[in-house]
């Protein structure tokens, strides 16, 4: 059996990975199986360099705050600020502390220094301004949208009106809302009014696209559209946080990935004339099939419940068709966590290479039976579902981390 599995595997290189992808790919989703392990962003850096130098890719999108990423992109494209500023203010989820992320931003800036604007690499975030402990206030996004529009159009709302509807930001960022939905302001009359305001402003932004683009720039309009998407998404998310139903957490997962998918679609549209985009996030956010997560201990009465939702990859993949490709990563041994021989990771661990690219079609053809799902000792690691590996375009296996 080991020899048969070897027929489905090749030693890892950027070229062996891209050989498995459709030539029509405009967005490549590269997933990682867990966060906080430098081996996977380091692998991403290696892949991105290959994609830029040999496949014409001109942008990367990360599972990080879409608004904060504007700071990192300004440094990468124009040298605005410093590398330290970009890492401190250009990331969310603590990702700015990652040495691999710092090396990515440094390399992108060095690549761009001697190139004209149309050939420079761009850095995007495609997550909302969200953390596990809650969501940001929609005020910065909505006021930035308002300021952009009010400079060129007569609006029915003033900044003072918006401030009155928002009230103190502490109401929106109250950490107690994470466990007590009754403390959320997401379904108050003021929040509902703000959702109507955002809807009207987004309509104005669309209706006056030619005038606004000419008066500012295509990039200026794109940023305003980003503010609009983010304000609308945050207001929806806060409304979800105010939900007292048992399905609340699942609803929030759906809302987050829907926001991610909208951002990815907008990024692909912006980059369409320049080249394809690499998206990097957890496998569960980029996979093409339905995502599932068994809530671990620590989730109170929800522990042991399985959440299901359509990932950002599944949503954007439906929209893009063969222009979306997904490469999943997984690993064998991590310290004392050694996969059982009958699991997918256990079988792949018999491969001779420390890193390998697996063709899922060939893999399915040589397996005599479906592997047993892996049960990890670390709840932050979500193994690949062996029943759905046929919905990936490639699997990258790291034998030990």
From TrEMBL:
Q: Which Pfam families match?
A: Erythro_esteras
Q: What InterPro entries does the annotation carry?
A: Emycin_Estase (IPR007815), Hydrolase/PRTase-associated (IPR052036), UCP036794_erythomycin (IPR014622)
Q: By its UniProt entry, which SUPFAM superfamilies does this protein fall under? A: EreA/ChaN-like
Q: Which domain of life is it from?
A: Bacteria
Q: Name the chain's protein.
A: Erythromycin esterase-like protein
The organism's lineage is: Bacteria, Bacillati, Actinomycetota, Actinomycetes, Streptosporangiales
């Amino acid at each position: 059996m080991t020899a048969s599995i070897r027929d489905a595997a090749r030693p890892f290189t950027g070229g062996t990975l891209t050989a498995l992808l459709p030539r029509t790919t405009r967005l490549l989703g590269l997933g990682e199986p867990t966060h906080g392990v430098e081996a996977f962003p380091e692998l991403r850096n290696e892949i991105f360099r290959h994609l830029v130098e040999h496949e014409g890719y001109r942008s990367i999108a990360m599972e990080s705050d879409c608004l904060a990423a504007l700071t990192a992109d300004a440094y990468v494209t124009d040298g605005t600020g410093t590398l330290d500023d970009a890492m401190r203010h250009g990331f969310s989820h603590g990702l700015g502390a990652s040495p691999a992320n710092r090396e990515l931003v440094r390399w992108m800036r060095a690549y761009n220094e001697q190139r004209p604007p149309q050939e420079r690499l761009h850095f995007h975030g495609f997550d909302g301004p969200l953390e596990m402990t809650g969501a940001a206030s929609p005020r910065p996004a909505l006021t930035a949208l308002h300021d952009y529009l009010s400079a060129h159009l007569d609006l029915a709302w003033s900044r003072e009106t918006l401030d009155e509807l928002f009230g103190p930001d502490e109401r929106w960022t109250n950490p107690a809302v994470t466990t007590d939905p009754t403390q959320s302001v997401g379904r108050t009359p003021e929040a509902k009014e703000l959702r109507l305001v955002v809807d009207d402003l987004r309509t104005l932004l669309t209706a006056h696209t030619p005038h606004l683009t000419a008066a500012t720039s295509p990039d200026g309009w794109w940023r305003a559209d980003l503010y609009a998407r983010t304000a609308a998404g945050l207001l929806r998310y806060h409304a979800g946080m105010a939900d007292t139903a048992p399905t609340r957490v699942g609803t929030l997962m759906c809302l987050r990935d829907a926001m991610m998918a909208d951002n990815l679609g907008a990024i692909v549209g912006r980059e369409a004339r320049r080249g394809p985009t690499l998206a990097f996030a957890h496998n569960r956010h980029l996979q093409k099939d339905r995502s599932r997560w068994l809530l671990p201990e620590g989730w109170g009465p929800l522990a042991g419940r399985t959440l299901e939702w359509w990932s950002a990859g599944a949503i954007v993949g439906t929209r893009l068709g063969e222009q979306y490709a997904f490469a999943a990563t997984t690993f064998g041994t991590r310290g004392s966590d050694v996969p059982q021989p009958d699991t997918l990771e256990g079988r792949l661990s018999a491969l001779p290479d420390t890193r390998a690219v697996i063709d899922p079609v060939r893999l399915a053809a040589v397996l005599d039976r479906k592997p047993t799902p892996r049960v990890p000792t670390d709840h932050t690691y979500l193994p690949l579902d062996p029943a759905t590996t046929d919905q990936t375009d490639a699997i990258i296996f790291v034998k030990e981390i």
